[in-house]
Amino acid sequence: AELGGHPGGVKIEMERSHYAGRAQLYHPYSLLSRSAFNYTYTDYAHTEFHTRGVSPDRTRFYLRTHQFEGKFYIPECGCGKTGRVGFWSEYRDYQSAGLNFTPDTRELAGAVYAYQEFQWSKFALAGALRYDIRNIKPDEERYSIFLDGTIRERTFSGFSGSAGVRYGFKTNWNASFTLFRSLRTPGVEELYSEGP
């Protein structure tokens, strides 16, 4: 591919390897109906070849990502319907070389969450809660004139949640109302990127 953001454009080569594994366990005689686990590993390499006398003549980016998630499903009981609790984790190893000023960085993130539904005749109530935390640690700490601040270790955390109610009419119509608050923590590309 050729892009016009540089004099003469750049040529890009990308390589990506992705591996995934899944497992499920069934628990017919416990407080859980089943549990599910997912693991993924992604190795991504991105090289930009510059033209027309730019030095260095290339920029490389490497990103290795590990993700692991567990979900635990709660069986129906009384007015309690579908429910689950779980966790999610991620490790990212970012590296770059050449005409790039973003420092090599490691990210570690995690989350725990819960979701539950309740049913009373024609009324249904659903609620969800999630807590996220992410730590971003560059290999070096320094002041950046481009970012107007110091490139340093950062940690972000916060809650997301939702609550909703639904009413089912005698026909196939439903009326529902939902409130929610969401959070997304930033990554290395948003915090430390200095171009070009």
Describe the structure.
By secondary structure, this protein is an all-beta fold. It has one helix at residues 188-191, and strands at residues 2-3, 10-26, 34-50, 58-74, 80-98, 105-120, 123-138, 142-144, 149-151, 154-168, 174-181. The strands form two sheets. Strands 1-2-3-4-5-6-7-10-11 form a nine-stranded antiparallel sheet, with no helix packed on it.
Mean pLDDT: 86
Query: What summary fits the major beta sheet?
Result: 9 strands, antiparallel
Q: What share of the residues does DSSP label as strand, in percent? A: over 45%
Overall body shape: elongated
How would you write the strand order of the largest sheet? 1-2-3-4-5-6-7-10-11
Helix content: under 10%
Q: Number of helix segments?
A: 1
- Roughly how many Å is the radius of gyration? 23 Å
Give the number of DSSP strands.
11
From the N-terminal CA to the C-terminal CA, the straight-line distance is 18 Å
Question: Which structural class matches the secondary elements?
Answer: mainly beta
